[in-house]
Amino acid sequence: MGFFQRLVRAVKAQFNALLKRIEDPEKLLDQLLLDMNKQLLEAKRSVAQALADEKRLEKRVSEYAAQVDDWEQKAVTALKAGREDLAKQALVKKAELLEVLEQYRKSHEEQHATVEKLKASLRDLQDRIEDARRKRNILIARAKRVQAQKRLQETIKGLSDTSAFAAFEELEKRVEELEAEAEATEALEVEDTTLSLEEQIRKLEKPEDKADVLLEDLKKRLGLPHDSSGS
């Protein structure tokens, strides 16, 4: 697995862990950006190390290329001096160095290709982090909106509980009963006051004598004059 694949997995793992642990979206995004920047620094160090390795290989290529050219010149010098034996030895040395040079050239080409890939991945990572930084406020607003909707749904769900409505209806019924009791008590008090007033007035009236009433009734029946005043 390449370095940047491990980096992406690490960021995703940290994101999932933070998502479960942090409810504040702003704090979550800030922490994610901080972690991304840390990973970016690590990626930059890796690219720098790879680039340094490429430079060292490039230097070895130059060094061995120079040695190959040097032994080539030594072989020419020996040959011109009539020393074929020395010229042969110089060419053998040149051939040995040329093999090493080709190995270094191959390693350098492979390292150069690796560095270019790492640079491209690093640029892509930087672009993504910049994009995430630009989207931070938008994501915070969206996350808060989702949280508000969730809280509203939970509130509505809580209000949908039948026990709460039953308690509300029971309280309403009890209040109506208390109101009815209060009205009945008030009516009884008014009635008691009215009866008491009538009794008091009746006591003030002069009671009629039963004998006088009977006498007047008899006179009436006999056609005799009677006292119209009742006395």
From TrEMBL:
It comes from the Bacteria. InterPro entries: PspA_VIPP1. Residues 40-74, 101-188 form a coiled coil. Keywords: Coiled coil. The keyword Coiled coil applies. Pfam families: PspA_IM30 (PF04012). The keyword Coiled coil applies. Belongs to the PspA/Vipp/IM30 family. This is Phage shock protein A, PspA. It comes from Winmispira thermophila (strain ATCC 700085 / DSM 6578 / Z-1203) (Spirochaeta thermophila).
